[in-house]
Structure formats: C-alpha cells, structure tokens
Amino acid sequence: QAGNGNGSGWLVGGESGVGKSRLLTELRTHAMVEGLLVLNGQAASEGTAPYSIWLDALRRLILVTELDPVDAAIFKPLLPDIEQLLQMTVPDLPPIDPQVAQERLLDAIVSLLTRQTQPMLVVLEDLHWANESLEIVRRLLPTLPMLPVLLIGTYRNEERPTLPDMLPGIRTMTIPRLNQAEIRELSQAMLGKRGQEPEVVNLLQRETEGNAFFVVEVVRALAEEAGRLDEIGRRTLPNTVFSGGVQTVIGRRLDRITANAKPLLELAAVLGRTLDLRVLGQQGPLEGWLMECANAQVLEVWENQWRFAHDKLREGLLDRLLPDHLRQRHQQAAEAIESAYSDDPSYAAALTVHWGAANVPEKERSYAKIAGEQALRNSTYMDARKYLGRALVLSKNLSVSEVLVLHMQLGEVLLGVADYTAAKIHYQTAQALAESINDQLDRVKALIGIGRAADMQGQRDESETAYHQAVLLARALNHPALTAEALVYSSAVDSLHETYDVAYLRLKEAISIYE
Known about the structure:
By secondary structure, the protein is an alpha/beta fold. The chain has helices spanning 20-33, 52-63, 69-75, 82-86, 98-114, 133-140, 180-191, 198-208, 212-226, 246-254, 262-271, 277-280, 287-295, 311-319, 323-340, 348-357, 361-377, 381-393, 400-416, 420-436, 440-456, 460-476, 480-496, 500-514; strands spanning 8-13, 37-42, 120-125, 149-155, 171-174, 299-302, 305-308. The chain has four domains: 2-174, 3-Layer(aba) Sandwich (Rossmann fold), CATH 3.40.50; 180-253, no CATH class; 256-342, Arc Repressor Mutant, subunit A, CATH 1.10.10; 398-514, Serine Threonine Protein Phosphatase 5, Tetratricopeptide repeat. It is built from 24 helices and seven strands. Strands 2-3-4-1-5 form a five-stranded parallel beta sheet. Strand 6 (299-302) and strand 7 (305-308) form a beta hairpin. Helix 17 (361-377) packs antiparallel against helix 18 (381-393). 42% of the residues are buried.
C-alpha cells in the first residue's frame, strides 16, 4: 500500500528477544526487493545527540533532495557536517526564540520527509528510549496516508507500556512469546524431525518460556553439549540446560571470546550496541578481533555496520563487570571518544555519561554543559534540562558568573517545557547572582525571563514590574537591543490584556530602536 502512496505507521511491541528485530530484518529485505528506499534509526538508552534516531535518515534524504539555502541552514545545528555532505557553504541563521526555532526545525524535518516521491520504509528501533525524536513521529503520522511511506517502530512494551498513547493514530502490533506449537515449528526448522519430539519441545518450553532468542540459544547450547545438531534427542536430555538458565547460556557464548579479546569487547559493550570502529580503533588493530567475535556469533554486520548480534549479549557482558571494572571501562570509553572526536560537540552527551560513570565530576560537568547547550540550540528541551541540570548539580567549583549562565539557560529550557514556576525560580536566582557581582547586563536578561515566566502564569502585575525594571535598567546601560526586547515582551502582555494604547506606544518605541 505504501508503494501506491497510501502509507501508514505501525508500532511493534514485545519483550526483548521475542523476535521484533528478526521480523524487521525480513521486512527490510522484502522492501528492498520491491524497490523501496529503506531508512533506519535506532534509539539508545542515554548519551545520544539531539534527534539522534533520525540523523542517518536525514543525511541520506538531503543528498537526494534539493534544498534551498534556508532549509540547509535550519538543518545545520542538527547536522554539523552538512557542508561536507552538500559540498556547499551553509550560513548560520540569526538566533531566534528557542521555541520558534524548535517549531522551525520540526517543520523542516517533516517537510523533508513528506517531499519524497520514492516509496520508503522507515524503521525506528527501540522507541522506548526515544524522547524528542517521538515528536517527529507524532507530526508525521497524520500525513502518512497521503505518502508512499511505511513507518515502523519497535519498543519493549514492558519498559514503556504507555508509548502507543503518546503517538495518536499509530497502529499497534504485539509480538507474543511462542506457544508450544510455534516452539515445535521453530525447533523442527533447526533440528529436523528430532525437533518435533515431545521431550525436546517440552525442554525448550520449560527453559525459555517461549522467548525466541532464548529458544535459539538453548538449542545452540544443547548442540554444543551433544557435539552436533543432529545428535540432540539421540541421548537423554537434561531436566534443565544449565543451573543458571538462559543467562548461563548467554554466558557460555561470551566465554568463547579469548582473554586477550575480552577487554575490547567489554569496551564495545560500554559504548553501545552499534560499534564505532573509529573509537575502538584507538586501542589498536581491529580486524582479527572482529573476526573472532563474529565467529563466536557475538558480533555481526548489519547495514554495513558492526554491532552486537543481540542486545542481550551486550547486556550480559555488562552484567558481568564488577563496579570498579565497569568504572574503568567507562573512563577508557571517554578517553577513546576524546581521542577519536576531539572538539566535536555532538559527542558531548556520550562523554557526559561515560565521565559520570567513571566518577570524574569535573569532566562530566564540562561535557554536560556542552551537551545541554547543544540540546538548547536544537530545542530538545528534555535533554537540555537533563544535562544543564546535571552541570548545575556539579557546579561547586564554578565561578558565580558561570553558575549564573546555567540558571539563565535552565530558565529558557523550562519556559520551553512550560514549567513556568521552575523557570521563574531559575531567573530569580540568576538575577540575584547578577546583582551580587554587579553584572547589570545579565540582570536585565534575568528580569526579562522573570517577566516572561510570570506572564505565562497569568501574573500580570509581577510580569509588568519585571519588564518595567528591565526597560529602565537597559536604558541606563544604553543597550538598545535589550531595551527593545523588554518593550516588545511588555507590549505583548498589554495586548493580551487589551490595553492596546499602551501596547502600541511600547511597540512603536521598540520599532524605532530596531530601525
């Protein structure tokens, strides 16, 4: 149907290991055979750049879509490499209100997707970890019936059961665990006729409870014990595969990795499911290590990228690490990223996570501030709130002016997420700090922030007072831009309260300043 211009959006739920990824692999293959453009994205639990799940898709689409200079400039904060991709100079746009910038960016992304005429399959995995990226899905859903686009997302429904309610209009599908008949069918596909034997099927049912990933792993473990697949069932089967159950089975596969190769595999697990060979390559040559891990079926190549064959293998490896060992691996990861991508702000979020887990607060704070500022520029307010808030928590050794800036930034973020009470508190704190160091310029900015927050709370008197003080102080500082800004916000309040004559005079004065 999508190929005929009648697209749709689907959300496929199920627990980890139930078969979601396998289903999508088959769907991708079928789509490519049918001539569809296949775009992929995968969310991660933490430490990702703004709208990260869409970045690879956007990079592919801008290469096949004619963009005017303004569109390219809108994407530039999100895609810092856009000039290299388009082989052209892309100017920076003038700064605007973050909420307006967010709307502009989201509109540009949705417009880019809806302008495509080639039938497309868009696959977004692990949406239970996605935040701001879901807003693009929400905005895209109403347009899909008129587009040649099939959008499919996956999620672990036990981790985020309310996700379908957050995406109105999306169709849902849940993949359940295998029942006994389906286990028998899968067992037969792997083992032949012996896979149908009741004792084999009953063992698989008992050990795996129908989780498809576990079924495959248990069969693999049985084959290792028997020596060959076709030997399973010829001998007496155990009551249980191993005393530790499927976790021990996963551990056995990880134990195939030699001691020399294991440290790098642990580092890869800390970095995420998809391998960044540039980062891992900081530790030395990778070819032999990759082949060893692939032969052990711990790593695989997917979409021309190396990754863990299943996230449960990565999670199993992390579960084995003692706290001190895990901390060391996070520090190693942070140092490798710094070496591979020095001064690249798109890795600030990941570095915040790794330095935090390594218990190096100075580095964590530094990167949290960079990540928060990047998120604020891209209007991804939830991430901005998290990272700037973390930087503030770790601000013990910062100067007053540096702490002031963090409060101002958090005030802007909280206005963006409509938490006006918290926004006003941050702006009030910023004003007090500005007064303490006689920073009159930042005091004006803080007063404007207080006015905006109070206005959104319907507290007109407080808002008017803050704006009035801001105008007087900005005039005293002979700062036309801030004077005009305070007058514009004040005139908007007057208009909302229908005191149009006062609003007109203030707006007229602001216009005269801008002219």
